[in-house]
Design goal:
By secondary structure, the protein is α/β, with parallel strands linked by helices. The protein has 25 helices and 17 strands. Bound molecules: flavin mononucleotide, iron/sulfur cluster and FE2/S2 (inorganic) cluster. The site of flavin mononucleotide has 22 residues, from strand 12 and helix 24.
Amino acid sequence: MTDAPVSTNNSGKSRKSGKKIHPGSGRRKAPVYNKGRQLDQGHEEEIKALLGDRSRQHDLLIEHLHLIQDTYGHLSAGHLQALAHEMTMPMTSVYEVASFYAHFDIVLDGETPPAPLTIRVCDSLSCQLAGAATLQSELENNVDPANIRIVRAPCMGRCDIAPVVEIGHNHIGKADVQSVIAAANNGETHAIEETRIDLDAYVSGGGYELLKACYAGKYNADDIVKTMQDSGLRGLGGAGFPSGLKWKIVREQPKPRLFAINGDEGEPGTFKDRHYLEQDPHRFLEGTLIAAWTCEIEKVYIYIRDEYPAIVTMLRREVGRLVDMGLLGETQVEVRRGAGAYICGEESAMIESIEGKRGLPRNRPPFPSERGLFQLPTLTHNVETVYWARDIIERGPEWFSSQGRGEGNGFRSFSVSGRVKEPGVKVAPAGITAQELIDEYCGGMADGHTFKAYLPGGASGGILPASLSDVALDFGEALFKHGCFVGSHALIVLSDKDSVRDAALNLMEFFEDESCGQCTPCRNGTAKAVELMSKDKWDIDLLNDLKTVMMDASICGLGQAAPNPMASVIRFFPEEV
Ligand SMILES: Cc1cc2nc3c(=O)[nH]c(=O)nc-3n(C[C@H](O)[C@H](O)[C@H](O)COP(=O)(O)O)c2cc1C
Ligand code: SF4
Ligand code: FES
């Protein structure tokens, strides 16, 4: 008889274990000394004082990181460690989150903190068409880097006034070197609120009467769901899922239920949500509260991108006023601030971000309506989708459904930018064509520009030639058969002065930057595509292979849609590549 193999376990004692791995044998010895950095008392006291009596709940991590970044201009390693200690979280979790979001500056021991003022120059497509690259290099040549840091940044949701620059938290449109430097020198670095219809004006126009009638039992939730279904309203964040049906599905889920409003609006070319939040924020808030009442929601989280700082402040204040007026009913509402990550517009990534984590999209099923925020059934909606709820219920579903051209149903808010005379948000019938939109709503092409191509759905929705400007701009087959989609209804117009291949490269660089890195086809695929698309001559076979892998194997819509513009160039503009 031979002895069984002998293994050594944690405690160092020998055990006869046979061929099997003994349970527990993989555990490591407890460390005999504390690893990692020592907690610094000064940092600990500063963080304690900064957080004050704020909750230490883990989902507030991003809010607390903002607090430190806003106060100190960066996140030092010592502050991160003190925050982890204060929130009883592992340092790795805090570091992972802080390093995921573009608006946090981590400064390790011995590193120099960033300059006191940061100027971000938007380099996404509409701003690039308006000369952002030149603006950025001129700014770099004209500022003292010890005082001002110039960085590039993705779309800031103001593409109609390109090129756009953010000085501290102040956004400047149609920017040039002189205006930017003057604003920086004058300390114009704070966000400027632009609310048009305030609470008093909204209430005097009949605002919140519908909500009060719901609370008073004058409406029935099932009838409201039916009205929303009959109106044909579809999700306006990009996917176009029927909204009434979503309310119905959520109402069938067990309680408690939550609601996450998507105000991330990161799709380059899109700025309609900002428009509505600035023009008429209470119509949005009333729509949100009606949806919450109908679906018996316990708590609403409104997630707003960090590029809209004045809107975050305004919404927090206005929600407070609604609480004072007793208009929140049974519902709690909390406004959360994003931190610079396009992927957090994807609803499951937004949910992760609201939970205080990195914005990594989740696999589905389960869908958020079944298991979303904190694993509870969650209604998710784009800002604009709920904005229409009050009008649809008050005016009746036909008011909305009777709009539309051709097969189109309802109206849509197109964010139009690029080479048109009058860019901006255009409320037009669903199913309108690009040519009609340009001619009837945008005053035609900009002077000196001939219509060459257009993006029907922001960065992700592909590119079409002007010869296909008669295609209906709506969800579904009409665009799909050309490899495109309307998504968030962001129309970017290109002219004979523009290179479509350069536009596609700009978009792919955006996707490379914004990929969350969770899956290989997207993380490596976007990087490889940028490399191939930067060459004078494109390797079409290789790019087509890459496209297939990315579309078939990426986890979420970012990686699946990223090859669309590149595929459009190969299909419609072969002479450019
Ligand atoms: C990469 C990616 C980015 C997205 N960004 C946004 C966004 O910024 N805002 C938004 O409302 N929806 C965005 N969506 C769509 C959301 O996942 C989701 O469909 C939407 O918020 C649901 O609300 P709705 O039904 O009202 O449209 C994005 C989707 C993907 C795949
Ligand atoms: S497709 Fe891209 S963004 Fe989406 S999960 Fe994968 S790596 Fe992240
Ligand atoms: S603000 Fe620059 S592209 Fe949108």
